[in-house]
């Protein structure tokens, strides 16, 4: 009879789901635990649960609970007396485990999987989109939304620009063919005032960007949006570098990368869980 080291079993389970069970020579349990940890996020993605903040919270707590249960199961098995046997490794189980590990590593390191999963995280460092998005907000993006849906006026979008390392977030104001004009704190599109409940005017701070030093934020246009382009603005109208500035210009539709969904982490705790609209 032999006794396994429960501390080693716990450590292995923490590092590798099912590692403690493998140490305890519980090969079937090892495979079951690894499959559970591997498939759980896939199930959540397929069910689109991660497209909501509470789905993300549920996945997090399930992982924590399963992790603790996995460690406890490994420790419990280790402290029990077990017969010392020289068992041959089940080749089918070993092959299945290797397949799952390889697939897991591929998902983690492969850039191509971002389009399959369809979700990415992003952190914003400026207040050009305040109060919708504020510096310090981390949020989830849906990469596939605009592959299935048309861009609408008022949409919050993330897009790529060659002169920036990462994506930018702005509000879509004008679509191709729209005639846009800024009059005081109103935006006129095709001779009609466009309602903007998200737009805010906090007061100018010329130190924040070149736009406020060189251009008039309130009065502009009329401007006609060319084909294949978008006219975008930040919700913080006093301090946003956007399509009002000729140097920024229009945004190509094919550069639209994703749709922001919700804030999952923020330096301001009250903003955590906020749906982005």
Q: Mind explaining what this structure looks like?
A:
This protein has 277 residues and is an alpha+beta fold. The protein has 2 domains: 6-115, no CATH class; 118-271, Umud Fragment, subunit A, CATH 2.10.109. It has 8 helices and 11 strands. It has helices at 6-15, 19-23, 27-46, 53-79, 91-109, 113-117, 145-148, 210-214, and strands at 119-123, 138-142, 156-159, 168-174, 179-183, 186-189, 192-194, 220-224, 229-233, 251-252, 256-265. The strands form 2 sheets. The chain has a 7-stranded antiparallel sheet. Strands 7-6-5-8 form a 4-stranded antiparallel sheet, with no helix packed on it. A hairpin with a 2-residue loop joins strand 5 (179-183) and strand 6. Helix 1 packs antiparallel against helix 4 (53-79) and helix 3 (27-46) runs antiparallel to helix 4. The protein starts with 5 loop residues before the first helix and ends in a 12-residue tail after the last strand. The model is unreliable at 83-89 and 108-114 (pLDDT under 50).
Features:
277 residues; alpha+beta; Umud Fragment, subunit A; 2 domains; 7-stranded antiparallel beta sheet; 4-stranded antiparallel beta sheet; 11 strands
